[in-house]
Amino acid sequence: MTITETESLLDLFEPEWSGRTYEFYSALRGRNPVHWDDLMRSWVVLSHADIAALSKDDRLSGARIGEFHAALPPESRADMAPLAAILQDMMLFREPPEHTRLRRLIRPGLTPRFIRTVRSMIEELADELLDRVVPTGRMDVIHDFSEPLTRGVIALLAGVPAHAAHLLKDWRGLLPEFFSQSSAEMSRLTALREVFDAGAEQRRSGAGDDLFTQMISAQLRDGEYTEDEVFANFLLLIDAGQATTTHLVGNAALALLDHPEQADLLRQRPELAGNAAYEFLRYDSSVQFTTRVATADIEVAGRHIRGGDTVTLVLGAGNHDPARYTDPDRLDLTRKATDHLSFGHGIHFCLGAALALTEIEIAMHRLVQRTRNWRLEGGEPSWLDSVNFRFLNALPIRFDER
Ligand code: HEM
């Protein structure tokens, strides 16, 4: 198969598939679990086993921003160049040895000890946010609860001062901006750079014990990191750590609205909350795929991927693969889904996975313990216009207090 040939495929952008993502994947997987998609100019991989294997294959590279940037329409390429330069410095888009070096910059801050320390703070913050809305009998799960919760955790982790935390409000992330070729976030980026520069200056004289301080200390101590690299990976932390978790909690709440018997199960058996977090991640992830570029020819499921081709690993499809999960489209909070693909796999495995699991566990536990009888307000909720990021625009509900 060469990239000039076209396979007749289903198109997720067609209105008939709107809101039916997992049915769409199933139809696509049924036709061909590994195929070339002319619209995306990419190979598309939909089976759990192939995604897991390819994520660990070092013939696939995560260094792909150059390709993405070159693929943008010529008129927006210059506008997006500053953003592309920042993305290029993030570990997510680098390969060893740079990837290993940049991962070292953040990993020491996300230790199990840190997560144990912040656990009670996350619980307190979740309860504070619920205290405000529970007596009113209505809330927007995203805007009143999950977004301020994850923003608070990231501000705490990254050491973003309270006066600057508003810059993270409604932050959807740099990648959605890059792909929508919008320069709207550029002013916010400039403001964040100012906060970063001022914070870095303070931390050079030794203030603070947050991850930001550790990053600046590593830069000074090892001289291994440029200031742009520290800034880019500081942004990655904010980026990768916030909207993903906000919307995972939103998607989990929507899943419980559709499965009230599972919400009751979680109310009756709160000890299931840790296990449930994995199932929520499997069932409806906020991140649906990731991409790689082949650096050599690769055979997968009888298909021939050529060096230079782009490969899209559809994590959300792997999570609903019937070859891996019995009755995959059913939410089952007792299911053991620890091998879900929502955090990726291989060297780029999500650095914030343990923190995200803790946030999801606490958020869903507190939500169901303090409220019951949820009703969706305002009809079917709408989604961000993106095939990769499954972000609800809002999730207004009514409920009774427990
Ligand atoms: C990487 C998903 C939360 C930090 C990743 C990747 C995925 C992912 C799929 C790998 C991407 C790839 O292989 O191309 C998620 C989801 C989250 C979440 C679904 C929440 C539900 C977090 C949090 C943090 C974080 C809370 C930090 C506080 C990172 C970082 C990377 C990453 C730094 C890059 C790792 C590397 O390139 O080595 N995440 N993430 N993530 N995530 Fe997360």
TrEMBL record:
It comes from the Bacteria. It comes from Actinoplanes utahensis. The keyword Chaperone does not apply. One of its GO terms (molecular function) is monooxygenase activity. Belongs to the cytochrome P450 family. GO terms for biological process: antibiotic biosynthetic process. The keyword Metal-binding applies. This is Cytochrome P450. InterPro entries: Cyt_P450 (IPR001128), Cyt_P450_B (IPR002397), Cyt_P450_CS (IPR017972), Cyt_P450_sf (IPR036396). Gene3D superfamilies: Cytochrome P450. The lineage of its organism: Bacteria, Bacillati, Actinomycetota, Actinomycetes, Micromonosporales.
